[in-house]
Amino acid sequence: MPRRKSSRTSVTEPVSPVLSSLHGRLQAWIAQSFGKLTEAQELTLPHILAGQSALLSSPTGSGKTLAGFLGVLDHLVRSHEAGRLSDGIHAVYVSPLRALTYDIQKNLMAPLEGMGLTEVIRVGLRTGDTSAAERAKLKRKPPHILLTTPESLAILLPQASWAPWLEQVRFVIVDELHALAENKRGAHLTLSLERMENRRVGQDGRLVRIGLSATAAPLPLLAELLVGKGHSCEIVEARLEKNRRVEVMSPLRRDPYPPAGYTAQRVMQDIAQIVERNRSVIIFCNTRSATESITHRLKNALPKLSEKIEAHHASLDRDVRLEVEDRLKQGELRAVVCSTSLEMGIDIGSVDCVVMISTPKGISRALQRIGRSGHSIHASSHGILVATNVNDLMECVVCAEMTRAVKLDPVRVLEKPLDVLAQHLVGMAMEGGYTREKVCTTVGAAYPFRDLTEEELDRVLNYLEGGGRSLEGQYRENFGKIRWIGDQLAIPSRRVEREYLANIGTIHTEGMVTVLLGKRRLGSVEESFMKGLKVGDIFVLAGRTVRLVETGVAEARVEDAVGRLPTVPAWNANKMPLSSGLAREVASLRTDLAERLGRDADEEIWDWLVERYEISSSNAQAIVKHCHNQLRVSRIPTQDSLLIERFVDDREGREADLVQFFFHTLIGRSANDALSRIIAQRVKEAVGGNAMVTIDDYGFLLALKSFQDLGLEDWKLLFSPQDAEACMQTALQQSELVKWNFRGVAQTGLMISRNRPGQERKIKQLRWSTEILFRVLSEHEPDHPMLTQAYREATHTFLDLPRAMAYLERAALLDWHLVDVPVVSPFSFGIYASKIREGMMLEDPEEAIERLWREYEKKVGLG
């Protein structure tokens, strides 16, 4: 099992024993460049030099990446001097980010130049962007250190021309391990590592696996993900105690309900002042559409600095992103507004301050973002959480407190994705030498697949032989990807091999439309957004206002529309769900406030909030006032209760016949999504009719017709845990969610080819093919492994069924309250605003919040 090393000591010796254990050339370069090793390097290096796998967890700016490479460089220098530095790859560095591999390549040149070994030790880069000519060159003369991505590594493994070079690998460095742990790319990489382990022909011992991670938990789990269950891995925590300042800012002052609704519009002046005060600022948003919106508004707020303010997100063209990164690194930009694209460790130079519009929904992510400021070892980090409304303020103060205390949510490893397994089985068939026993051993050694049953493996193997029971009779030749020659796994044709190499990876094709401004590719938007536009419409992309001129196949032409009112793209990127730990702490704050409001004077509660959460007095007063407003019409939802608010709109119009139930469950968006689908399905079964559902991090809203109206005892029966999963399955059969997931699963599992060698399939062809396959399998083979995986993703990745089930299990123990409210309560404003946004109602969300507040004031006599 992994063993944890203490990290409470600091390096004080002029020349430490660890530094003196390195080769003299490397010692001299470190002494000249840094003076001494960092704590992360001191603690990690002895294990690597001893040939032991290690996981290093340390904050950004602690010298983490160099800590991983020092042992590798020492091995290569000593091999060179001993005349044993053979051609072949000695170390593989894997990063989830292509941009990070470019940075590492540049940064590795410094020690090689310092030691005078640039002509001796070769560093090579192999990613999806590597040209065909450069790939051929790498094959002919392989680098000693190969920098790559999980996908590109998987492409190399089955190719015979790479086999002799990969057999010599001694070290594997996996960067940003925490970012891979919970997704398919991580599961994919673990299988590649086990296949690499099998390649170590004639070498002693196992691969030295070096994991690098930002602050994450639990570290023993991450270590097992890195090395596989049952293998030794030293855990190193380098807790560099950087000065980390985390503030909460809001425009609420003493009034929780100022003008301009629930968006960041009212904080733009405050953000603009932050940009003016600092040399460089990164502003994180939680969605790409918000990134474009904030960029546009910030440029308008600071017209003199508008040329130094840029957007950065994954939908922008790579050249646009690289240009923004370079300008930020060179100090040419005052502010970059981004979604998640700058969270991880690409070199962005010196950043003074990080601003987060609302919380990033989890503490690990907050720490990662804040760590982008004060990036060097001794610089302090400064993060500002910006609350855009009073419910958001409560989440921000809890997030800030948890971030200061480093209270992390546990990593959830993605368990045995069957489509990833299918892809690797075809790779093993190409590689050769795999019997069924060796397949079982190799797959079972990868941590995400440790519990894979023989039955599950056989179902995937049977699918790969001919497509599955429902397809193999007529279409074995079309879907067959493997065959058995004796007891050896093999491929049936060269066509399968070519298609496999063209379709490796887990990132499935999205329907995106390229946007061209003149001859320049500006970025891309989703097809669904583009279909809703007409020529002449104005929208924002890359922080620029543009007018649609012409559309073609997967392409749209635009022109500048500076100064015009835009329609901002609403990308279909899912909102990040609130983490379980942060949700619990917000529920705990609400519970504490409910108790104190019934016992203490307001002044005492203000003082408690200021001291406990380190917030301003005005924000403390806004929170307490918000709670009093809630108590005027309802109760405060707590962690031990289920508050249901029943609201009937007495206005004439479209909602006159609706009864609206707000369920304050406090379990996070993904879990509420799962729970609301179960309850809506049960309403349909109990009284008929459909329910309109709106979800939020803190609850969900069911809008019912008057004939569906239910009382408290009825709702208690509907929240039973009995047969809840079967109910979910029924609900999903009537939704698009499983089908939407199946398209990605079918591509990853090689049922549908994203790309044909030499050409890329059109999105329309992919959709047509998966639609047919989904129908066939749903009707004739519902236990098909790719369909099983699609359902699993729908319920465990997109939705959080386990957390919803856990809530149902304890629902009977909660204190239930059904309250008839004369108006939407202040604690339900956020859910109602989501209903307006997601239902695409004609009313503007900001204006709707203003209307709700005016109606509230009128109903309770404040107006």
TrEMBL record:
Domain Helicase ATP-binding: 45-234
GO molecular function: ATP binding; ATP hydrolysis activity; DNA binding; helicase activity
Entry keyword annotation includes Metal-binding: no
Family matches, as PROSITE patterns: HELICASE_ATP_BIND_1 (PS51192), HELICASE_CTER (PS51194)
Residue ranges constituting the Helicase C-terminal domain according to the UniProt record: 266-429
SMART domains, sorted: DEXDc, HELICc
Alphabetical list of SUPFAM superfamilies matching this protein: P-loop containing nucleoside triphosphate hydrolases (SSF52540)
Keyword terms of this UniProt record: ATP-binding, DNA damage, DNA repair, DNA-binding, Helicase, Hydrolase, Isomerase, Nucleotide-binding
GO biological process terms, semicolon-separated: DNA repair
Similarity comment: family membership: Belongs to the Lhr helicase family. Lhr-Core subfamily.
Descriptive protein name: ATP-dependent helicase Lhr and Lhr-like helicase
Organism field: Prosthecobacter debontii
